Amino acid sequence: MSIEFKLQALKENVEIVEVNAIKVNLGDIVTKDQPLIEVQADKAALEVPSPAAGKITQILIKQGDQVKIGQLIFVIDPVGAGAAAASATPPPVPQKTTKPAPTTTATAPVPVATATATKTAPIVLAHDDNKVIPAGPSTRRIARELGVDLGHVPGTGRHGRVSEDDVRSFVRGSGSNGSSGGSISIPPLPRFEDFGTVERQPMSAIRRATARQMSLSWSIVPHVTQSDVSDITDFEAFRKSQSKGPKFTISAFAMKAAVVLLKEYPVFNSSIDVAGNQIIHKKFYNIGVAVDTENGLLVPVIRDVDKKSIVELAEELTSIAERARQRKLDSKDLTGGTFTITNLGGIGGTGFTPIVNYPEVAILGISRGRLQPVVHNGEIVPRLMMPLSLSYDHRVIDGAVAARFTRRLAEMLENPYQLLIHA
Questions:
Q1: How many Å apart are CA 254 and CA 270, to the nearest integer?
Q2: Which of 140, 204, 228, 288 is the most buried (most CB within 10 A)?
Q3: d(CA 33, CA 51)
């Protein structure tokens, strides 16, 4: 009998994925757990394995398709390559009909259900006023961080399941403490077709994930952006003098400088726990670096930056940026950041206001350096001046502290040799 392979849940609260690549052809013989497709689930690329050995008789998707959880994607004929596997499975059946079976009948369904739930992201039940509230682990975590009572959040998922988006919508429509209120109503769009020709294009998985995260960050974090400039004339001369080894970039030096300052000003390496009225100071230093790809913005995280030299950071930055452009990042590469750097210097601009990557509390934006007339050592001379933009969460960071942080950062970048001492 043919097996209809439907896409199972791959990640909590992800209902639609995008097909990056199909790894088999019609008629191929596959083994159990062999990767059949690669999909984009939020910003992580995941492989989907075959549920059984057999022959691919139908491929019902193509590269670039948006596929819903539960949608039929392959039909597999277990006859042939799967015959051995099929013949190996019947023996346990007679054992279940023997006399000892009644003693295990009551418990037999439990491990089966548990295994299935584990594979498809289990529903975690929260209790409020004797009412059972279906919600996933990540939804419950976000609710705790925002101080939201799940019992007050209308669930839009199946059987009233509360999703992360439900919690975010509730927060956007409630008071600043997130403890009461209702959800906001988004007005419907006008019929643009009444005014002219339009083209509708589905949002990619990366764009959907970016939209969700930016909406969350903007709706929760009271943003302020501190601006400054750094004289990187000496840095540029130093960079050009390095003919061997990895390519030194301002981003690698900014990462090293940021870690020095995160230790001096630990509030920038923290998160706010609204529900617990606490500031969580992290004792590890993982820096996210925004990477512009043809599929959208990705922010891979480089871990333990404080333990790596500038040479190691330059090499790892080059490697992880290339993997991001090739869609080779997994969930671990995109999580665990404590501070983020976004560099638009290669494109241009005189400054911008980057959005804090919640639950972080600060993000550094770097713009293109420009030659400007500057008073230097008592003379007006051309110097290469680079704009810096530090956006921060004003709930935990005061303006004076942000100004000191940005000024110290500018000074550290002005002296690359001093940074090498920290390397």
A1: 19
A2: 288
A3: 6
Tokens, residue 184: 């906001």
What span, in angstroms and rounded, lies between the C-alpha atoms of 198 and 221? Answer: 35
pLDDT exceeds cutoff 70 at 98: no
Polymer length of the chain: 423
pTM for this structure?
Answer: 0.69
Question: Which residue ranges make up each domain of the chain?
Answer: 3-119, 123-185+199-220, 223-422
Model confidence at 284: pLDDT above 70: yes
Interior angle at CA 216, CA 212 and CA 222, nearest 5 = 150
pLDDT bucket at 385, cuts 50 / 70 / 90: very high
The C-alpha atoms of residue 30 and residue 36 are separated, in whole angstroms, by 9
In single-letter form, the type of residue at position 355 comes to I
Structure confidence at residue 223 as a pLDDT band (50, 70, 90): very high
For residue 70, what is the DSSP state? Answer: T
Task: Give the per-residue pLDDT at 367.
Answer: 97
DSSP code per residue over 369-382: -EEEEEEETTEEEE
Q: CA neighbours within 13 Å on the CB side: how many for 342?
A: 22
As beta bridge partners, residue 385 has 231, 370
DSSP 8-state code for residue 180: S
Look up residue 64 and give its two tokens: 């670039």
Report the CATH number of the 3-119 domain. Answer: 2.40.50.100
- State the chain's mean pLDDT as an integer: 83
Domain 123-185+199-220 grouped into CATH 3.30.450.20: no
pLDDT mean over 88-94: 44
* Mean pLDDT along residues 264-277: 93
**265-302 burial string, b = 16+ CB within 10 Å, else e?**
bebbbbbbebbeeeeeebeebbbbbbbbeebbbbbbbb
Superfamily of segment(s) 223-422: Chloramphenicol acetyltransferase-like domain (3.30.559.10)
Beta strands in 50-153 (DSSP E): 54-59, 66-68, 72-77, 124-128, 131-135
Helix (H, G, I), strand (E, B) or coil at 185: coil
